Amino acid sequence: MVNNLNDLYTGPITINERISSLDILRGIALFGILTINIASFTPGGPPGFTHSPNSVDNWITTFLLLFVESKFFTLFSFLFGLGFSIQLIRAKQRGDGFALRFSRRLGALFIFGLLHIVLLWDGDILVVYAIVGFILLLFRNCKEKTLLKWTGMLLLIPNVIVIIGFSSIEILRSMSQYANQFQQFDISFVNAFKNGQQDTYQILSSGSFAELISSRVTGYIEVFPLLLSRVPTILAMFLLGFYVGKKDILRNISRYQSLLKRLSRWGIGIGLTTNIIIIILTKVLPPIPGVVILLLNQTLTGPILSLSFSAVIVLGLQNNKVKYLLSPFSNIGRIALTNYILQSVLYSFIFYSYGLGLSGEIGTWQALIVAIIFFVLQICLSNIWLKHFRFGPLEWIWKSISYWKMHSIK
Length: 410
What we know:
By secondary structure, this protein is mainly α. It has one domain. The protein is 76% helix and 0% strand. It is globular and about 65 Å long. The two termini are 21 Å apart. The relative contact order is 0.17.
């Protein structure tokens, strides 16, 4: 086992060189992403702008908004930056052209994302990751302090914008000349969301394959500006992951143990308290300010809790019993790209017309049970696959494009 990232040798990482905690974190992040994504197909599911007639579904949605929404997507962003750091250090050790190879890697990721949108699901994150990844390349020679400064600034800006936007809406709403207008906006927003949701259920459950492709592409184009609003947070987490990789924290846990303990205690305390307040406000405020304040779940508590959760997990992995309990997440995390796409295959099968066509027909609690069963199946399939192959099928294609040569998959 290597003791330092600089000892890694040329070529893709072997099983003996992998950082097990990194794979486990990826696996856990995949489970979080699966649960929040599959729940979004259900009436009253996240983001919770409408309510289910089933109170259990509503409680599950609240739980997901509190503990899952934007936490594991943000954790995945952090891990992307950490992976970037490992690849950069390996490239410097070899003395090869990292920028060109990583650009090919991002280009392949972009293509994967486009195919994902067209063929499976418009809730893709790969396209945005590829775009932000090219920005990340510009920081590859930055010092550690510079990375932290940019991270702090990028995390601060969207939170300031959200708070200013929320405050402005509340000030205008308190003025008599605008009060009725904002009430109409609230009613229009709720009706538009409900109607849009019903239209989506209809086309997913009964549309032809061509109609669903058109719907996915159109839907992605419509939400793309909203996805771009996530760029500052995504880039911040990329840079923070890059920083952690440069500091080699995951290989030197004992050295940073006190820092990780403080992060886990204070981060979870502050993050959960703030998130509870945000969720309560979304329930009691009118729809439009409620939606605006919910953005803090993405820009503020998402980063805080994703880092705090990961600190708890990393510290827990120092205990052999905890490591044994969490070890099933390791192999699924090793082939994260393949498993991420497989999850979209599940959505297609359950909710689309050429599958079971159950869009809008099952409750959030039922979707969550399906997610748990499917994730266990993914763990089993990942274990079987990695007994015979070095990479997942999509990872093999991805690495071959990145290195511009065919690697042995066995």
